[in-house]
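Hello forum,

I keep getting stuck at the same step: I have a sequence, I want structure tokens, and every attempt I make locally crashes halfway through. Rather than fight my setup again tonight, could one of you with a working pipeline run this one for me? It's a single chain of 761 residues.
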Amino acid sequence: MLNNISLVRNVGKFDSVNAGANLDLNKLALIYAENGRGKTTLATILRSLGDKEPLPIIERTRLGGQGEPHIVIAHNNGDTAMFQQGAWDDSDVNILVFDDSFVADNIYSGIDVDTEHRQKLHELIIGAEGIALNTVLQQIVARIETHNQAIREKGARITAVMRYGLSVEAFCALEDIEGIDNLLQEAERALAAARKSEAIAQRNSFISLSLPDYDLEVLNTLLAKSLPDIETASAEQVNEHIASFGERGESWVAAGMKVVTENDLSDCPFCKQDLSGSDIVAHYQSIFSQEYLALKEEISTSLSDLERDHRAELMTAFERNVRTLTENRQFWSEFIDIPEIDLDTALVTRLWRSCFDGIKAALDAKKESPLEAFTLSQEILDLVNEYRAARTAVHELSNSLVAVNERIELLKESALESNVAALEADLNGLKAVKSRYSDAVLALCDDYLAEVALKTATEGERDQARAALDQYREQVFPRYQDAINRYLVKFNAGYRLENVSSVNNRGGSSCSYSVLIENTPVPLRSNQAGQPSFKTTLSSGDRNALALAFFFSSLEMNANRANMIVVIDDPMTSLDDHRSLTTRQEIRALLVEVDQVVVLSHSKAFLCGLWNSTDNTLVSSMKISRSGSASTLSEWNVDQDSITEHDRNYLMVSEFIENGHGANERSVAVALRPILESYVRITCPSIFPPGSLLGPFLGICQHRENTPNQILSPDDRTELRALLDYANDFHHDTNPAWQTANINEQELLDHARRTIAFASI
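Reply #2:
Ran it on my machine without issues. Output:
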């Protein structure tokens, strides 16, 4: 409870006011002020104290004042709240203020209800408990936004290049794939094949490679072959003789014997001598027989076969084929796995040719000396073994390459039918998986997903907090709507509210409602020009009544209202007499609900009505009065301002009747007619409205005598006529010389008694 306003310095109209320290504030504190004296400033000070918000006071720093605002308010029977150096101390005072700022902040501004009003009204309706729930919710929402910011930052570190076109969320959600490298290779090859489908269709598959072998067993048999039927002595003699001929001697002799045999021995084809008696010729005939010729033929055939199967063109073709295979392998290896061609064709060809040359030399020697036994040298045998090893490697390579041909055919078919775009997408998907689980990106994704998990957990907290708030609002808003409509009934408003509810949006929670007029819902704002809305259907008085209804409803719904100081600044704006009475009644009702009520107003009548209808032990009064060019706080005699003109007239006439002496007789005479007019106005309000005259009223009374609508009895009418005739002598409108009219004290006393008696009927 506020005890007094001890000091107000350099705020608004208040220069340095400490008179309030001697003006105690009671349970109901009435403060009167003419407009412009500082009433709103005082309400602002109290609102600032309750909100602990210094700005409203700083904004009202006295123009031309010396120093900063300084305020001291005593409360709670000894504690003080102090505003100094731009801030309040830590005093805790629970104050709720109804003033223009309350209306503009929470209900409407001018004639409009905007988004901010509905948000503030939402807080007003849900009260401290709801605000606490909403604060928890907003704190969690703020944490979610912090998570969102962190997620955006951490997601930005996972660049588009890493993600291969996927969103960060989809990228981090990818599952690892076993054997990803192999799948990537297959996908890359499939895409490459699709892009080169025409080249693939035109490219040949692998040809088979083969190298001829050397049959060493046959060769050795041939080289070692002789003619066993020839006598050894003859053979030795012939061989010795032939050896004397030098190189190719045996061939020369064999050729000659063929000629001799064909032409008999009588004549040597060379020297024409008779050969029939020659021993050596006889030996020649023994040796160079048909078998000998067959052997020679076999040797020649072997040489021909050797030269055919191991000719230079084949070796050249072999090297050419290997080059072709290498080129094909380079082409096909882009799409499928192809065995490496690790073949030294120069070595193979050199071995091949070396074997050929060695074996041919041996056969040539055998051909020259068929009867001589030959064998392949170890050097040749070693060369053949090396050649055979190389030949085996060539055949194995050839077989492995030819085995790929089936896959090549399948590749050709699939390449022609492939969809490049689909294959690109598949490849990018695999690349994304590969990238996702690389060491560097794995850490980034783990960090991102950890933040997402934290956000998800926080969203769970948000959902729980929102459910708690929604459950609370589902209970509060219907009760609040009922409370508002009860107050609107009390204020005799011609409208009601419906659909008072809470709405969640991006800007936060707000209150939504519509005005029900003649059973027709009217929205707060209209989306179409010319359509009814809040600002076009409610008068100024209706809007003020609505504001008061909201205010009183919020107090009624506030569970902590018993500890609350309620400040009401000029609630009379645009209110008619009935609503003024209702407002006074509601203010008085608050006295048993709250800690204290402070009412500020420029209407003496309104404040006097509160004063007169409240237990005088619970009410205090003061006024803001002028002090030079500034304002100050002072005492206010409400009883004096509560006395009406009729009361003063009645009291003056009564005292004259009672005491007589000392009275201003002319003033008493002047007061008689107003007493009669006030009486008739109260007793006959429909016939004698304000501004009426008693003369015409008496004419109406006479006209209605002895009828069901009779107003006064004939005696009362006659008495009123007589009293009026006397009283008219003392008024300027009925007697120009009223100020000098003669007054007889006894006559005045008689008419005074009769007037009081008539006004007491």
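The two ends are 47 Å apart (CA to CA). If your local run keeps crashing, start a new thread with the error log.
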